[in-house]
Design brief:
The complex is a heterodimer. Chain A is an all-alpha fold. Chain A has six helices and no strands. The radius of gyration of chain A is 17 Å and the shape is elongated. In chain B, a hairpin with a 4-residue loop joins β4 (161-168) and β5 (173-177). The chains are: A mainly alpha, B alpha+beta.
Chain lengths: 173, 310
């Protein structure tokens, strides 16, 4: 459990099954047939970044690699394409985790944006090496939208860790 | 030399070491998958885990579709039914004649000693979804190893060729569309009989490559499969020529076509049975088996001889 900006409330420890559950839900969201719509964020990358920042001891590169492989198989892309991107992003989240939580949510989102962009850039690089064309700028709209979602995501994913507010005159915190 | 103090808490390997390991692993997977295509077994094993999740993810969309059709009004269904019956009646005449013509054709071919044409047969399949990856023009259909689908089988819809099965999983199969950058289909122009190969461009269009700038191609020309590849049966519509650029500074014309089949739409498709492998005539086959080293030269020579005879 880590201290965070502008929060005098101490969070409860996270439940491991909740982490797994959110990752699975993100995988489900990624599997939805939304290929035709523009600016759909990569939900799984977003959740992996979130947990690797919040709980770097529990969600690391190993999980990111496994979920990346699952995405590759389901997406009919080159095996290892998503895995590479997610591993790099998990490492980025890990190295950000010490300082990012001291910033307000808006500034956190700005720091997360390069990571999410990295996911698309890595995949773009891999496919370009394999001989694909430029998919158009709309390919990079997803991370922008995902960045906007960061404060909302933080609120939702931390909900189970909030403890009930009961004022106690003897304990000011 | 700087000595680090022993760590107080056990945290496993250093993050950088882990990063190097996983990056190396994924790079190795990428290279092996892109260059050697030997990871199909791993893919199939992983798909056993991802397939149920995918099924679950597509449940809402299916329920929505089904409930939509459930509430379709009886009047509309009756209209549809009547229209379909009418179309069926209109087609009966042609169909009956076609059957008779096919039989006649077969008989004539037998008389001429030409090899019989293979009848098209196959199994219907439903398109489950298109891949989320914008790079791959692929769709996934609901027939897999369980239904004896094999990689390489052609896939058609009611208007023409859709693509080719490239990967088979236990319950589903991946179809590479003809508009994919890595897909090529040997075709023939119906009007002139000119043979060529049509390539996908990756943006929903096709290109007819390597035709000279003065080739006899016009806008609106229909391309059908030529069947020379031994995979697609001859005569299926593939595409229509929509735009031709003839630049005299290049030796080839740039010819763009659009696919006829509803390649990028969701609908039902038909997976055609694979064509039997083309076998050499008996004496040639014996020759090839006897002297494997000289096969290529020999077959080239015999081809030339045959050409001279003709």
């Amino acid at each position: 459990m880590q201290t965070s900006y502008s929060s005098s409330r101490i969070l409860l420890p996270v439940r491991p099954w909740f982490i797994g559950f959110t990752l699975l839900v993100a995988l489900l969201l990624n599997f939805l047939p939304t290929a035709a719509l523009p600016a759909i964020p990569d939900w799984l990358a977003l959740v992996i970044v979130f947990w690797s920042i919040r709980e770097p001891r529990r969600v690391g590169m190993g999980l990111a690699f496994l979920f990346g492989l699952a995405m590759d198989v389901a997406d009919a892309s080159l095996l290892g394409q998503h895995a590479l991107a997610y591993v790099l992003v998990a490492y980025g989240g890990l190295s950000l985790s010490r300082r990012i939580l001291w910033f307000p949510l808006g500034e956190q989102a700005l720091q997360v944006f390069p990571l999410l962009l990295l996911v698309q850039i890595v995949q773009f690089g891999v496919r370009t090496m394999a001989g694909a064309d430029f998919p158009g700028l709309s390919y990079f709209l997803g991370p922008c939208f995902a960045t906007l979602l960061w404060p909302l995501l933080t609120f939702v994913l931390l909900l189970p860790q909030h403890q009930p507010v009961d004022r106690d005159a003897n304990r000011p915190l | 030399m700087d000595h680090q103090p022993p760590p107080f808490f056990k945290r496993g390997p250093a993050p950088v070491a882990l990063l190097c390991l996983y990056v190396a692993l994924s790079l190795a997977l990428l290279v092996v998958d892109a260059r050697m295509q030997t990871l199909e077994v791993l893919r199939q094993a992983l798909s056993m885990f991802t397939h149920p999740v995918q099924q679950f993810a597509h449940l809402p969309a299916q329920v929505f579709d089904n409930s939509g059709s459930y509430f379709a009004s009886v009047a509309r269904l009756q209209d549809d039914n009547a229209a379909l019956k009418k179309i069926g009646l209109e087609n009966v005449a042609t169909l009956l004649r076609t059957q008779q013509l096919e039989v006649e054709n077969e008989r004539l071919r037998k008389l001429l000693g030409v090899k019989e044409r293979q009848r098209a047969s196959g199994q219907a399949a439903q398109i489950l979804y298109a891949a989320r990856d914008p790079y791959s023009r692929r769709i996934v259909i609901d027939k897999g190893q369980q239904d004896k689908v094999l990689a390489g089988q052609p896939v058609i819809d009611d208007a023409g060729i859709v693509g080719q099965v490239t990967r088979v999983f236990p319950f589903v199969a991946e179809v590479t569309l003809i508009t994919d950058k890595e897909q090529a289909v040997p075709v023939q122009i119906v009007r002139t009989g000119l043979r060529s190969v049509v390539f996908g461009l990756g943006d929903g269009q096709l290109e007819l490559r390597f035709l000279p700038a003065n080739a006899d191609v016009q806008n609106g020309d229909l391309l059908v499969t030529s069947g020379l590849d031994g995979i697609f049966l001859p005569g299926f519509p593939v595409a229509k020529v929509v735009h031709i650029e003839r630049d005299t500074s290049y030796s080839f014309a740039r010819i763009f076509c659009t696919p006829l089949a509803g390649v990028e739409n969701f609908s039902e498709v038909m997976v055609l049975d694979p064509r039997p492998a083309i076998t050499l005539p008996e004496p040639l086959a014996r020759e090839a088996a006897g002297r494997p080293a000289k096969t290529l030269v020999k077959s080239g020579l015999t081809k030339k001889k045959r050409l001279k005879k003709e």
